[in-house]
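User: I'm designing a mutation panel for Polyketide cyclase and want to avoid disrupting the core. Could you give me a predicted structure to guide residue selection? Please restate the sequence first so the numbering is unambiguous.

Assistant: Good idea. Sequence first, for numbering, then the predicted structure tokens:
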Amino acid sequence: MPRTFTVSDSIVIALDPGEVYEQISDPRRMASWSPENQGATLGEGWGQGTRVGLRFAGHNKRGGVKWTTQCVVTAAEPGERFAFRVRAFGPRRLALPSRIASWEYRFEAVDGGTQVTETWTDDRRSWPDFLANGFDKAVTRGKVFADFQRGNIRHTLATLKRQLERGATRGE
């Protein structure tokens, strides 16, 4: 079965694009919204603001399995777009350098706030479909990553909306 390489979903959040971007462009905050992410460790250079080329380690957990990803920021356009690429992963240290996936968040001003679109792209283009599908089903309890990520994206966006609109991450 051919793979779906990209999935996305959108939600409207009752804040302006700059405020939403500010929250999402700090990877340490993702743990508040994502069903898998457990936070991030920022690499050098984050003190001068988010920008292309900055690196961070994402800490993740699915069931009883934990892993770390090495990520690099690929887009940092305040109020418009934040994106990063997962370049390596491993259980405790980054043992497997490889193109894994890309994540993108787009922000568009609309009536009532900001439409946030979250997109996941499977960057494992060199993997044969049968191998990728088998790996995906083994680590997600029966789903291919595109289907699995659809659920994660819906969960992340709904939680992001709920928390940002009530001011939970802005200290209100």
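For picking mutation sites, this is relevant: The longest strand covers residues 96-110. The CA atoms of residues 110 and 133 lie 37 Å apart.
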